[in-house]
Amino acid sequence: MNKSKVLIGFVLLCYILFAVFELSGNDGIAYYSRSLIVPLITLIYLLLIKDKKRLFLLFLVFYSISDLMGLVIDSMPFDESGSLYDFNYYSGNLLYMISYLFLVIKICKSISFKHILKHYLVHAIVLIALNIYFIYVLQVIISPNLVVQNDYYFELAYNIVALLLLPLSLLNYFYRDNKKSLYLFLGSLCIVFSEVMDVAYIYISERGILNFLSTTLILLAFYLLYQQSKLNNVANKNEQFMFVD
Hints:
Blueprint: H1 2-23, H2 27-48, H3 54-75, H4 83-110, H5 113-119, H6 121-142, H7 151-176, H8 179-203, H9 208-229
Helix pairs in contact: 1-2, 1-9, 2-3, 2-9, 3-4, 4-7, 6-7, 7-8, 8-9
């Protein structure tokens, strides 16, 4: 219990430090504080949860590696060639993309797509259409700011993977209709909104409030996802037996 309180205290301390320094304009310390939040949550999961879910653990680990790598690279001496920035941009975002893919796979393993197509076909079509529209809007915002044209396709792949979380988690909630699937959907929703805030912060206006909202949503997302990881999928009327995730 004491170990749990100490680790949770460190997470809250990092978030408070981030909020204070971000809103006061000290981006450097704010960035360092932000980068420690998810790795600390991952450490909490590793130390306190006995029945670890493999896909969820991989999601946490890859996301944490990206955050810590960015922290290390930012602490290095300034590189005039920009090679360190490029390495951090491509490898860091690739790690985020892989982490989201593990979460996508976890959600897909929990869904009966046969049941979805039979009972929620219209919902699925609408969600896919909305997802395509959101991706299009993000690409319209991002593309004028890209220096290398090939980055357009890299950003496109990233946005597709990240935004897949929203329709899949919602369909999973329709299908499962339990507390675990609700937490998973709300966590995915917070991740997607956080990504949208990041795009607004990076490509539209570097206002501290946008970065603050993005980080707050990420903290809320990982809290919800952590809570759902402790729950089992309870069988409902849509299934004859419970799937093991």
